[in-house]
Amino acid sequence: MFANLKAGWRLARLVRKSVSKDRGVFLYPILSGIISVGLFAFTFASLYVTIPLNFSGNSIFIYVGSLLLAYIAVGFLSTIILLAMLIAYRAHNSGNPVSLRTALGTAWSYRKQALEWAIFYTLLMVLLRIIESRFRGIGQFVIGAIGSMMIAIATFFAIPSILDNRSGPIDAVKNSVATIKNHFGQTFGGVAYVDLYTLIFTLSGVFAFIGGFMLISTAIPVFALAILIVAGIMLIVLGVILNYTYLNIVKLVLFDYVNGKGLPDGINEDDVKSAIKRKKSRSIYGKDTSSQQDNF
Q: Which of 48, 239, 254, 290 fits a 20 to 30 Å CA distance from 276?
């Protein structure tokens, strides 16, 4: 187990170094976060202004429907931006870097697939929440955790599959599951990708945020506590941005690797193999994949 964790840390470090060659990649999760927060804030503000809080009758359907549409819209735009980020990363590693505008323009050609994926994923999560709501106590937590884990595993390579094949949501999930079965064993043990670097940011932010509120009743000046709380929020946001970027890049790296598209400079095959937990002891790949090929 410790060998896999060590390999996961090494893979995380190599991915960070690879991403650091093009720091513009971090603009995509920031843009996605701003749009998502803005869209939900606009939706809630619009509902608050147009429909009174003591709504009755059909008003609840307006609230639910509006939030559902907002969730789909956020999913659609987030998918477009994620595709753009992967396009930009591939382009940079192929020696032909592209601008944010060009990457988004290329990703926009996937708008049909992105919308289908957003609708599919939203309905999938709604179904999970409906099933989860039928249980109480620890059972609800267990069902939610298992369901979320199953969805996360089944959709692990879905976005890279959409990027390469312009797949619909069903085919994207099928391709994702097939990739896992064919290259990672019948039981997907997952990737030992443990990014201690981003975890430190996130946990530090959580502790600072909670600590700031817990110390409100003490003699510590309010200004100092406010700084502590704001710093905690900023660290959490930074941790989320870094983890989002690195995790999605490592998915793309693995997907390209097992599909014969090579590896980016600085990430060698031995490091990838050692970080992958496989049920069956067989080689993932039969030929040299030490160099990144042009994927465009």
A: 239
Confidence check: pLDDT of 114 > 90: yes
How many other C-beta atoms are found inside a 10 Å radius of the C-beta of residue 93?
A: 26
Left (φ > 0), alpha (ψ -120 to 50) or beta: where does 190 sit? left
Sign of CA dihedral 194, 198, 202, 207: positive
Q: What angle do CA 166, 123, 249 make, to 5 degrees?
A: 45
The SS3 of residue 276 is: strand
Residue 175 and residue 182 in contact, taking contact as beta carbons nearer than 8 Å: no
- Report yes or no: 143 and 132 within 8 Å, Cβ to Cβ: yes
Phi and psi, residue 243, nearest 5°: -65, -40
Whether 89 and 25 have beta carbons less than 8 Å apart is answered as yes
Residue with tokens 């998918």: 79
Q: Are 73 and 32 in contact, with CB atoms under 8 Å apart?
A: no
pLDDT, residue 277, reads: 62
Rg of the Cα atoms in the chain: 21
Burial class (CB in 10 A: 0-12, 13-18, 19+), 252: buried
Q: How far is CA 273 from CA 2, 278, 282, in A?
A: 15, 9, 10
Of 62-76, 103-117, 209-223, 263-277, the least confident: 263-277
Give the pLDDT band (50/70/90) at residue 199.
confident
The answer, yes or no, to whether residue 38 has pLDDT greater than 60, is yes
**Angle between the 27-50 and 222-258 helix axes, to the nearest 10 degrees?**
120
pLDDT value of residue 64 = 80
What phi, psi does 191 have (nearest 5°)? -105, 135
pTM of the entire predicted model: 0.84
What is the Cα–Cα distance from 260 to 281, expressed in whole angstroms?
Answer: 19
